[in-house]
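Before the break, one more example. Copy the sequence into your notebook; we will annotate it together after we see the structure.
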Amino acid sequence: MSPCSGLLIRHAQPHDWQRVTAVMPQWWGGRDLRVMLPSIFFEHFRTTSFVAEREEELVGFLVGFLCPTHADEAYVHFAGVHPVWRRAGLARDLYGRFCEVARADGRRSVRAVTSVVNRDSIAFHQRLGFLLLPGDLEIDGLPATGEPSVPEGAIVRFELRLDDLAAPAAAPEAATEAATRQTEGRG
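Here is what the structure looks like once it is written out:
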């Protein structure tokens, strides 16, 4: 059984924005990144964004969208998991759901970024099969891209080719459970 089987994972709704942004500083170790996730994302990208709850407590989220400029790409803008739920397969499950949506829309790749200081996020993306994209800088041996909008001034960019790999998934049971929830109108 998947470790995420007791969770309700559903599409994000506008009212989720306050809950998500309220936990971000805690989940990011005191880094306040809330300004990078405006509420409009929860209005316009509901069908490509997910919220995970356990007994009505927020335990994870992923905000992503299908890129309107590049018809073969999808983009994960933000994803977070409560520290207690890390390494339980929840982030992998959320990314898997997003990749399924992207594939269903004919997208061939998923892109994401993270701060150069977020080593856990970098390692996580690499475990999922994301490749590091070239940048205009090198920081601590990583290809980075200057980005003045982030506190650290640089990001690491990733790409996952959907036609090369199976979409990330927590476990086969998770996909079956997700299909059941969708069929029953719970997803």
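The helical segments are 16-27, 40-44, 90-104, 119-128, 172-183. Strands lie at 8-11, 50-54, 57-66, 73-81, 109-115, 131-132, 137-139, 142-146, 154-161. Try to locate both features in your own notes.
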